[in-house]
Automatic annotation (TrEMBL):
Organism: Vreelandella olivaria
Any coiled-coil regions, as ranges: none
InterPro entries reported in the protein's UniProt record: ClpP/crotonase-like_dom_sf, Enoyl-CoA_hydra/iso
Gene3D superfamilies: 2-enoyl-CoA Hydratase, Chain A, domain 1
Name of this protein: 3-hydroxyacyl-CoA dehydrogenase
Upper classification of the organism: Bacteria, Pseudomonadati, Pseudomonadota, Gammaproteobacteria, Oceanospirillales
Keyword terms: Isomerase, Lyase, Multifunctional enzyme
Superkingdom, taxonomy of origin: Bacteria
Pfam families xrefs: ECH_1 (PF00378)
Amino acid sequence: MSVHYQRHGDIGVIQINNPPVNALGHAVRSGLVNALKEGIADANAKALVVLADGRTFIAGADIREFGKPPQAPLLPDVITHLEACPKPLIAALHGTALGGGLKWHSVATTESRWQEHA
């Protein structure tokens, strides 16, 4: 299970790999925040892309965390970091995008975010 950042040319790629469905567990949420910070700090990255390995994007919450005390960062905290990203942010959704995974659509396609870079 991992989330990592890597740059390809002038595009920063944040890649989620949490089989089988890339659930948004604590490690993924923390990894997303850390990878996003790394991408923002990368002066050579002009835009950031978030993608997920496997057959699906983020397919919702991690059921292994149900009934347990929540651990920061919570999904709203992650979304706040994404919305504050100063660089264009693209989410490459594929397969199923459920729950928190579907929230990415609104974060990555907010019109006002793109107007700053037009």
